[in-house]
Write a structure and sequence with these properties.
Helix content: 40-55%
Order of helices and strands: EHEEHEHHEHEEHEEEHEEHEHH
Number of strands: 13
Number of helices: 10
Largest sheet: 7 strands, parallel
Shape: globular
Mean pLDDT: 95
Low-confidence stretches: none
């Protein structure tokens, strides 16, 4: 049985990753939160993490890095902290692998934010990167670090450009914001940024981890970069109206026509590479939103 290390296992994607793989792999977890109940959990320092020690203690076949910050506003407010979490930690992980575990495959979560505002849609992996936020720049840097270790030391790397992830466990971003504005706020109007014509390519976290398993099985890990999405544009106004319908709300929806710094306008991924591994969507958007709302209500 292959041994997998999930770094950032207490986070949104990391937690779902552990849940998905634990029945088929020997899964170990790693994060900054203390966990005294799991013998296969390794706690690391949140500021000065020592991944060398992690790989010296155990041999892993695959390391999946789900750690880091996933917030454009956070990267605008605290760019160095964002760099440390999204770029420096990737460097430290790969240096530890190069030093003591050179046969360990490495997967890291990149982001569609590397594309910024693409000149055309759908977005292929070969298109030039042009980030519009510090977060996007730091993800580009992390990808370059993976390319460096693949090219010069033959470390097996793969970067997953995750588009708009959602699902149970996510307590931020547009869907969390929509729920709170429809349910928690007394205002009779849901006020949102932008025009409503902005688009995102949403993918449920259950499909993300399924895609991840296909990549583990079929990717050659030669510095690959892969879009992880569903190849579908969804307007934010459409998303807001789905929430309104599911929640049976009579609130009005109003967009302020202001684009927040760092927010791209339109995303739609080309997922031909992912499809070549056998990927197909299993969670429809409305079903995923219903599931997400049930999770929120169950955790209030």
């Amino acid at each position: 049985m292959k041994k997998i290390l999930v770094v950032g296992s207490k986070g949104f994607i990391g937690r779902n990753c552990v849940k998905h793989f634990k029945d088929r792999y020997d899964v170990w977890e790693c994060d900054v939160i203390l966990d005294y109940n799991n013998p296969k959990y390794i706690a690391i320092d949140s500021v000065d993490s020592d991944f060398l020690e992690v790989f010296q203690k155990e041999h892993f076949d695959i390391c999946i890095n789900c750690s880091g910050a996933a917030s454009v506003p956070f990267s605008m407010e605290k760019p160095f902290n964002d760099f440390r979490l999204n770029t420096l930690n990737v460097f430290k992980l790969l240096e530890a692998i190069r030093t003591v575990a050179p046969d360990c495959k490495f997967i890291t979560m990149s982001s569609a934010a590397v594309y910024g505002n693409p000149q055309s849609l759908p977005i292929t992996e070969q298109m030039p990167t042009s980030p519009v936020s510090p977060y996007g720049y730091h993800k580009v840097m992390a990808e370059q670090v993976c390319e460096e270790y693949s090219r010069f030391w033959n470390i097996q790397t793969c970067c997953l450009r995750i588009f708009s992830a959602y699902g149970a466990g996510l307590r931020k971003q547009i869907m969390w914001d929509l729920y709170n504005k429809f349910v928690e706020q007394d205002d009779d109007t849901v006020k949102l940024w932008g025009t409503g014509n902005e688009t995102r390519d949403f993918i449920h976290v259950k499909d993300i981890v399924r895609a991840m398993e296909m990549i583990i099985n079929y990717c050659d890990f030669k510095g690959n970069i892969i879009n992880v999405a569903n190849g579908e544009q969804v307007m934010i106004s459409t998303l807001a109206n789905i929430f309104k319908s599911v929640l049976q709300s009579d609130k009005k929806i109003k967009f302020n026509n202001i684009t927040r710094p760092g927010d791209p306008l339109n995303w739609e991924a080309n997922i031909d590479i992912l499809k070549s591994y056998g990927y197909q969507k299993t969670v429809e958007l409305k079903d995923g939103i219903n599931d997400y709302i049930r999770w929120i209500k169950g955790n209030e």
